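Human: I wish I could look at a protein chain and see how it folds. This is the protein in question:
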Amino acid sequence: MSQMPQQAALSKCPSCEEPLEVGDRFCGACGYDLSAVPPRPEEVPAPAVNGSVPPPAPPPPAPPAAPHLPPQAPAPTGVRFDRAPEPEEYPLQAPDPRVAAEAAAPAGEAKVCVACRAGRVDDDGYCENCGHAQPRERDHMEQEFGPVAAVSDRGLRHHRNEDAFALGNTALPDGSPAALAIVCDGVSSATRPDDASLAASRAASESLLAALPLGTHPQQAMHEAIVAASQAVNALAEEPATAREHAPHQNAPACTLVGAIVTAGLLVVGWVGDSRAYWIPLDRTAPPARLTEDDSWAAQMVAAGLMSEAEAYADERAHAITGWLGADAYELEPHTASFKPDRPGVVVVCTDGLWNYAEAAEEMADAVPVDAATHPLQSARVLVGRALDGGGHDNVTVAVLPFPPPPQGAGSA
C-alpha cells in the first residue's frame, strides 16, 4: 500500500523549544505551525579540495518569532480529544432489559423492540431501551386473515425484502368458504424487484377475490389471476417513463408467483417461476407432496433426464429461472393444477428462501408444526425461523392455508 510522503520529524518546537512528538503538526504549548518549518538539509560533507576540508556550513537562519498567543494549558501529545475524561465504568443508558420486561405495557399499547424484546419503540423507529433500529415495514411482515396466515422476512444477507404476499378470504356462490394466498419473489437481477412482487401479489389477489364469488371455477380464476399479475408487472416497465434511463442495461421489473386456493373440497395451485406449494397432511403417516414444478434450469435438466435432481440442484445454475412475470419474459405460461385431498391438511406456499432449507416434501413436513391447521401464523413464524437459523441467505416468505378452510365471513386483505 502506498503512503503519503512525510516531512522529517522535529524534536523541539522552533519557537518555544517545547519537546514534540512524532506526527505533531502544531506545537501543543504555543500553537506554532510546524508545517511551515523548512526541512532540515542533510549534512553531507563536501568533497575535499587540494587536501583541505572546507569549514562547516553556517546554521540555517532562525525562523521568525511566532505571534504572541495567550497562555494555554499543555495539551497531551499525539491525538487530542477535547472532551472530559471518561469514567472507568459506564452507567446504564436504559433500565436492565429483564427489569423492563416486567414493566412492559400490555400487548397492543406500544410496539416492543424486536432485539431486546423489552424496550418500547419510539416514533423514530428506535428502541428506547437498547437503541436498536427497528425493521422497516417490509423487512418483516406478518398477517393472519381468517384461516390463513403469512410471514415474510428480509433474511440475514439481503439489504431489503423483495418478496411480497397477499391473503384473502371470501365465499363462493353457494356460501361455502374459500381462502387464498399469493406469494411473489422479486427477481433481484431486474430493476425494482420489490415493486414487481408487490404489484403482482395485489393484482392476483384482487382478481381472485372478484372472480370466486361470481362462480368462476377456482382453477380458471387462478389462471386469470396470474394473467392479471403479469399485466401489473408489465406496466411497471412503462411507469415512470424515465425508469429505464437510470439503468438502461437492466431487465424490466420481474418476479415469480405461486398461489393457492382452498375450498371445502378442492385445492388449486398456480405458479410461474420457482416459488413452490407443498401439501402436508395432518396425519403425518400419510405422504406429503410438492404440488408445483419449478420453471428453472435445474428442473429442465431433471425433466430431460440429463441430471439427477440432486446433481441439478447442486449446480450453480440451478436457480436460474426460465419463467417469470415481467415485460422481458419470453412468453407467459401460467401453470395451474387442482387436487381433491381425501383428508385434512395444510398447504405451504413459499419462496425459495424457505425451500432451500427444506427442499423435499418430507423435509418440509418435518419442519411444519403438527398444529399448523389451528395455528397457521405461529407455524409460518416457525418456518421462517428455520430459514433464518439455516443461514437466511435470501428473503423468505411463507403462507399457511388449512384444508378444508373453516367457515369464515367474507372479506379480503
In short: The chain has three domains: 12-36+69-91, 92-134, 140-241+249-412.
